[in-house]
Specification:
By secondary structure, this protein is α/β, with parallel strands linked by helices. It contains 17 helices and 15 strands. Helices cover 38% and strands 17% of the residues. The longest helix is centred in the middle third of the chain and has 19 residues. Bound molecules: ribulose-1,5-diphosphate and magnesium ion (MG).
Length: 418
């Protein structure tokens, strides 16, 4: 018999093996617990321990205990190493049931936040990663080295199919590359999915023909998984190049299914992240956006929203740090294109590019359709703000020769909205 002691998962001298998944958590121990005891409970509950000591026949047991191996008392940060055999290959739900499961609610900690993961090749190799990643700028669009530009029609719901396609057409003609559905537009009576898909792609084809630039449509396929896979097939049938999926509300298993189906059709995946703030907004509890973005890369999205480096309307974490991770090496997975969105307008584009570089997608809704002269002028103003920034010319100077940008700057200045 062997004893699995619930409080014996701590070894500060332990050096994690290269095959292990190493997770960093910020924890506040329960009132009557030391940080060592709480760290041990985190490692125990998230691997093979429980609240009681277990007595198991050694011959019938694979040892799968995690080890809490580093504790930084000043930051309340702990590091836990998980053996690769704990995990089912290629199952994101199973991994998250371990590293972000019961421990999030257990009484041994007042609060706990999964901050970062160091993913070993043994786990990464079970996932496909992006099919195109940052390559979409050149493989599917004509953005070259500039940021990809996208817009979401506003109001976010309620526009008829014809109005939606018309707004898209105006925005494409004004200079954006991608039309995107807002997250709460899927398949409602006022704007049914297949009609919207067909009309929007017909408008795209007209614009491409006239302006000589490739354009595309991020149609929101989000829904129940079987329905969603049918929608992915429809996008391919109608000649679309991308799908959009709201990854957190759908769940990672559904994202994995969509990734597989998109491979069959050569479709790229734009990941929206509604509900992420339920996990990442509090800095002492939940799952960081950094980790959510890592999971999305493994599951194989090509774009993911990562915030605006503080320049938009929503509270965000460390956008530059997350984007660096998405662009960096991860055992050969393609890099993911980060999307900056939420409250952006032409007046902040120079600051945004300064903060995040050019290998991004800039997405604006209100910042285009709220332009005093309408959507077409708004799209032109956004494109002009990018041109100015890449030419190293100040927005004010560029606006002297570009009326649409001048009007946008008069309206919004360089203010960050709320
Ligand atoms: C943007 C919008 C999106 C944001 C969400 O609209 O509706 O849902 O992408 O933010 P607008 P994030 O441009 O009018 O603010 O990108 O941070 O997930
Ligand atoms: Mg939205």
């Amino acid at each position: 018999m062997t004893g699995i002691e619930y409080d014996d998962f701590l070894d500060r001298a332990y050096d994690p093996a290269a095959t292990e998944l190493v997770c960093t958590f910020r924890i506040e121990p329960a009132e009557d617990m030391t940080i060592e005891a709480a760290a041990s409970r985190v490692a125990s509950e998230s691997s093979n321990g429980t609240w009681a000591t277990l007595h198991v026949d050694e011959s019938e047991l694979t040892h799968l205990g995690a080890v809490a191996c580093e504790i930084d008392e000043s930051e309340n940060e702990i590091t836990v190493a998980y053996p690769a055999d704990l995990f089912e290959a290629g199952s994101m739900p199973q991994i998250l049931s371990c590293i972000a499961g019961n421990i999030m609610g257990m009484k041994a900690v007042e609060s706990i936040r999964l901050e970062d993961c160091d993913w070993p090749e043994s786990i990464v190799s079970g996932f496909p990663g992006p099919q195109f990643g940052t390559g979409v700028a050149r493989e599917k669009l004509d953005a070259g080295e500039r940021p990809i530009l996208a817009t979401v029609p506003k109001p976010k719901v309620g526009l008829s199919t014809a109005a939606h396609a018309r707004v898209g057409e105006e925005a494409w003609r004004g200079g954006v590359d991608l039309l995107k559905d807002d997250e709460n537009l899927t398949d409602q009576d006022f704007n049914p999915f297949e009609d919207r898909l067909a009309e929007s792609l017909a408008a795209r084809d007209r614009v491409e023909e006239d302006v000589g630039e490739r354009k595309d449509y991020l149609v929101n396929v989000t829904g129940e998984t079987t329905e969603m896979l049918d929608r992915v097939d429809l996008v391919a049938e109608h000649g679309g190049g991308f799908v959009m999926i709201d990854v957190i509300t759908c769940g990672w298993a559904a994202v994995q299914s969509v990734r597989e189906r998109c491979e069959d059709h050569g479709l790229a995946i734009h990941a929206h992240r509604a509900m992420h703030a339920a996990f990442d907004r509090l800095d002492h509890h939940g799952v960081s956006m950094r980790v959510l973005a890592q999971i999305a890369r493994l599951c194989g999205v090509d774009h993911i929203h990562t915030g605006t480096a503080g320049l938009g309307k929503l509270a965000n974490e460390d956008t530059p740090g997350i984007n660096d991770w998405l662009h960096g090496d991860c055992h050969g997975l393609k890099p993911v294109l980060p999307v900056a969105s939420g409250g952006l307008h032409p007046g902040v584009v120079d600051q945004l590019i300064d903060a995040l570089g050019t290998d991004i997608c800039i997405q604006a809704g209100g910042g285009i359709h709220g332009h005093p002269d309408g959507t077409h002028a708004g799209a032109k103003a956004l494109r002009q703000s990018v041109e100015a920034s890449l030419d190293g010319v100040s927005l004010d100077e560029y606006a002297q020769e570009h009326a649409e940008l001048a009007t946008a700057l008069d309206k919004w200045g360089a203010e960050t909205p709320r």
